[in-house]
Amino acid sequence: MSHKSDLTYYDAVRRAGFSRRDFLKFATATAAFIGLPGTMVGKVVEALENKKRIPVIWEHFQECTGCSESFIRSDHPLPADIILDKISLDYTDTLMAAAGHNAEEAKKKSMEENYGKYILVVEGAIPTKDDGIYCCIAGRTAEEILKESAAGALAIITYGSCSSYGGVQAAAPNPTGSVPVSDIIKDKPIIKVPGCPPIGEVMTGVIVHYLVFGRLPELDAQGRPKEFYNKRIHDSCYRRPFFDAGLYAPAFDSEEARNGHCLYKLGCRGPVTYNSCSTMEWNNGTSFPIKSGNPCIGCSENGFWDNGPFVKRLTNIPEFGVESTADTIGKIVLGAAVGGAAVHAVATNFGKKKELKEQHCEGITNESKIEN
Ligand code: FSX
Ligand code: SF4
Ligand code: F3S
Hints:
Structural class: alpha/beta
Number of domains: 2
Bound molecules: ligand FSX, iron/sulfur cluster, FE3-S4 cluster
CATH topology of the largest domain: Rossmann fold
Strand content: 5-15%
Number of strands: 9
Strand order of the largest sheet: 2-1-3-7-9
Order of helices and strands: HHHEHHEHEEEEHEHEEHHHHHHHH
Number of helices: 16
Radius of gyration: 21 Å
């Protein structure tokens, strides 16, 4: 029997009992998510059919495991099967069957066999205070484990705002001295996939991008893949027409809130948050926080945890407009001001989600901008 690393993704999918049709559906949806036009779906199919799966070591440090939950609950059946169960996921202490010494042994073996070739996925921040004692696994600190796992990694993907930026546990006064992976590892490419947690399809998309193109995705100034983090929530929010019309919900339980009025005055951080929630939505395009009546709290932005209270209207954001990109606006600290109804000159792409759903082939990076 072949070792699971010898299988292609397609082999693994078929072995798992999925049909070719399921496989093609997954490839098509994933191509759309990573911003490829319909003509490129064949390339995704080809890569998944022919390329050997990438060995993955997945570490869990100071976190709530919401990122793994998001990943395995992603509504499409294949991401979890392909990336978690059937990928050469050689170590993840949360999901693997082995435990204790056996699990540690499996990791060691895989890291040696695949030295320089595996992707290291990290969930959770790394506490550095008091010699890192606040997060220990098998008697070793998170920092020690991270350094060892990173040494042989081809690249590191930091899933979640914790490993990308420090996360909630780094909130002032940061009692355990939590830091992101990038504060500790300086000599490896790091792809930050923030969000508390990130969207499952975004997490899958980053790995598939690497598989299809054989290179890491293009990153913005904060190290996030542009294809998923180059648009503000606000630009595609379905409540946006109400924002533009100056119609705001005055309270959570108001008739206005139910009727789709903008949540800006209830603290929405959508105007300064870069993520795919308003285009892809969660749970197979079912909903996202704003659609469920809650303002965006900016969970994919650095420092969001210290930017409360979340239900208070933002103040002090420098002006932003159509020219704003994740690279320029993204650097603005959350907590800076949107001038309410004064901010009209922003790009919108209300048709995006429809496009994505209907055609399954339009790239989310290739959108047309409509000026107000
Ligand atoms: Fe952090 Fe992920 Fe937030 Fe939780 O593992 S990004 S606390 S959803 O789970 O790391
Ligand atoms: Fe949507 Fe928030 Fe922007 Fe209002 S402020 S349009 S609720 S993202
Ligand atoms: Fe997070 Fe805002 Fe999306 S709170 S889940 S980035 S809508």
